[in-house]
Specification:
Length: about 120
């Protein structure tokens, strides 16, 4: 589980970095961020993780979904996107999700870690 959460943190960190540096459409990045979050959650459930690490991973996934999903909400309210928009939640929450995924990686999340 530790490697899963570290990979999720790295993927979200790369997406946030691209958000700040490249001219890629933010809706594409938002879609990729949502897919990465959902895949991380499904893999965590399939591996049957337990413990505090899984709870922290679930919180990180929720924070990431709220952050990346806020860009879709901005797009739904203004599909033309002609006005400059500062989406504070779309900037802060994916970055916060990276930190929470790193915390989740440090916590025990398998039977071997918990019983151990």
């Amino acid at each position: 589980m530790r490697s899963l959460f570290l990979a999720a943190a790295a993927a979200h960190a790369v997406l946030v970095a691209i958000l700040f540096t490249a001219t890629v459409d933010v809706m594409l990045l938002s879609g990729i961020g949502i897919v990465v979050t959902l895949v991380t959650g499904v893999v965590g459930l399939v591996r049957k993780g337990i413990g505090a690490g899984m709870w922290a991973g679930a919180v990180a996934g929720l924070v990431a979904l709220l952050g990346w999903g806020s860009w879709l909400l901005v797009w739904a309210t203004d599909p033309d996107r002609n006005d400059p928009v500062i989406n504070v939640w779309g900037i802060l929450l994916p970055g916060l999700a990276v930190v929470v995924y790193l915390v989740a990686a440090a916590l025990p999340s398998t039977r071997r870690d918990v019983v151990g």
